[in-house]
Design a protein that fits this description.
Layout: H1 4-21, E1 28-31, E2 39-42, H2 52-66, H3 73-78, H4 80-92, H5 96-112, H6 114-127, E3 129-131, H7 132-144, H8 159-170, H9 175-185
Antiparallel strand pairs: 1-2, 1-3
Helix pairs in contact: 1-2, 1-6, 2-4, 2-5, 4-8, 6-7
Bound molecules: zinc ion.
Residues 11, 15, 60, 79, 82 line the site of zinc ion.
C-alpha cells in the first residue's frame, strides 16, 4: 500500500465502513481525481448534533494513517475539509474528552472492520463508485471472512490528530489567524517594565 490513489480508496472506504457501522445511510461512495476533491460519501447525512458525524469524518484520515508508519504533515492537508467539519462540530459543542473518546472509538471500529475497509477500497479502485447497498453487502461479507487483516502501518497514539483538531477548534481561520492574534497580543502595553511581577497590584 504505497500508491497515493490506493490510499484515497482506503480513505473513502473507511468513511463508508464507519457510516455503515453507525447505520447511517449514504447514496454512494466515490473516488475521483479532481483538483478540489478525492471523492466522498455522496448523500451522507448524520443526525443533528450526533457525534457519529465525528467518527465518520475522521475515519478517512485515520485509515490513511494506519497504512503508513509515521506522521506526515501531508496527511492533514489531504483531510483538510473532513477535519474542519469535525472542528466545527466541537466548536459548537465544547467537550474536551469527547474528541479523544471519538478518536479511540473510530480506531477500534476500523481495526475490527479492516477486512471491510480493504475489500471496499479494492472494489472502489476497480469501479470508482459503489452504492450504499453494494457497500453494505461487501462489508458484511468481508467481515465474515475468517482471516482478519491488519493495517500495514503502526500507530502508537493519536495525539497529533487530537492536537490538530483542537488547534482548528480554536482557530477556524487557520495558522494565519493564530499568528495575527499572537502578533496583536504582543503589542507593548506599558513601558514601565513587567506586569507579571509578584508585587504588581491585582486588578
Ligand atoms: Zn474524507
Amino acid at each position: 500500500m504505497t500508491r497515493r490513489y490506493e490510499r484515497t480508496a482506503i480513505h473513502e472506504a473507511a468513511h463508508a465502513v464507519v457510516a455503515l457501522a453507525e447505520a447511517r445511510p449514504f447514496h454512494e461512495v466515490v473516488i475521483e481525481r479532481t483538483e478540489v476533491s478525492h471523492g466522498g460519501l455522496w448523500g451522507f447525512t448524520s443526525r443533528w448534533g450526533d457525534d457519529e458525524l465525528v467518527r465518520v469524518g475522521i475515519a478517512g484520515f485515520m485509515a490513511h494513517r494506519m497504512c503508513i508508519t509515521r506522521w506526515d504533515p501531508r496527511l492533514f492537508e489531504h483531510a483538510r475539509d473532513d477535519l474542519g467539519k469535525v472542528a466545527d462540530f466541537f466548536r459548537e459543542r465544547p467537550n474536551p474528552r469527547l474528541l479523544r473518546w471519538n478518536v479511540e472509538a473510530t480506531h477500534r471500529c476500523l481495526l475490527r472492520q479492516w477486512n471491510a475497509v480493504k475489500a471496499l477500497a479494492y472494489v472502489l479502485l476497480k469501479f470508482r463508485r459503489v452504492t450504499y447497498a453494494n457497500a453494505k453487502n461487501l462489508a458484511e461479507a468481508a467481515n465474515r471472512f475468517p482471516e482478519k487483516r491488519s493495517p500495514e502501518g503502526r500507530v502508537d497514539g493519536w495525539d497529533p490528530l487530537v492536537k490538530h483538531i483542537e488547534f482548528r477548534i480554536r482557530w477556524p481561520g487557520g495558522i494565519e489567524e493564530a499568528i495575527a492574534t499572537a502578533l496583536a497580543s504582543t503589542t507593548p502595553k506599558s513601558p514601565s517594565g513587567s506586569s507579571s511581577g509578584s508585587d504588581s497590584p491585582k486588578l
